[in-house]
Amino acid sequence: MKPIHKLNNGNGATLCNHCSKIIPTGLTDALFCSLECAVKENWSYEEYNYKLVREDGLIKQSEDVCWLEFDENGKFKSKHKDIAVGRSLMMSPFSQFFTWQTTDIKEIIEQRKDYIKFKTTNSIYELYEKANICR
Ligand SMILES: [Zn+2]
Questions:
Q1: What contacts 28, CB < 8 A, 6 or more positions away?
Q2: Spatial CB neighbours of 127, under 8 Å, sequence gap ≥ 6
Q3: Which of 22, 45, 79, 129 would be a feasible disulfide site paired with 114, CB 3.0-4.6 Å?
Q4: DSSP-derived secondary structure letter, 32
Q5: Is the pTM of this model over 0.90?
Q6: Which residues neighbour ligand 1 (ion) by CB within 5 Å?
Q7: pLDDT digits (tens, 9 = 90+) for 38-69
Q8: 16 CA → ligand 1 middle, Å
Q9: Residue 80 CA, ligand 1 centroid: distance in Å
Q10: For residue 17, how far is its CA from the centre of ligand 1 (angstroms)?
């Protein structure tokens, strides 16, 4: 599935793959206007263990995640299994070109076994683990 980009009076817009509503953030790589639409579209999670949803509808899936810590100069310091304020989320594959990494985590809003909601410098994200997704 690919983002649907339309030119709208010369302005780029992205349409929801489910309800065709315009996603209000302009041209993005978002697929759906809401998590509800993503679920309704029977979006496949099967080969992935993690699903990251950004507040603007952007969805990323991955087999694995890790949490990175950087020093005060922005240099990589260490890699962790658990979330903490100041770390950033990295999704697999952990290669320079295909990965997805968030900005610094500022606040952990909600944390359950299979679900974490957190705030970074730029956005609010929800991270789902498969056990929760397949409920
Ligand atoms: Zn929609």
A1: 3, 14, 56, 57, 58
A2: 50, 51, 52, 53, 65, 89, 115, 116, 117, 118
A3: 129
A4: -
A5: no
A6: 16, 18-19, 21, 33, 37
A7: 766 765 545 688 889 999 988 888 888 999 99
A8: 5
A9: 35
A10: 7
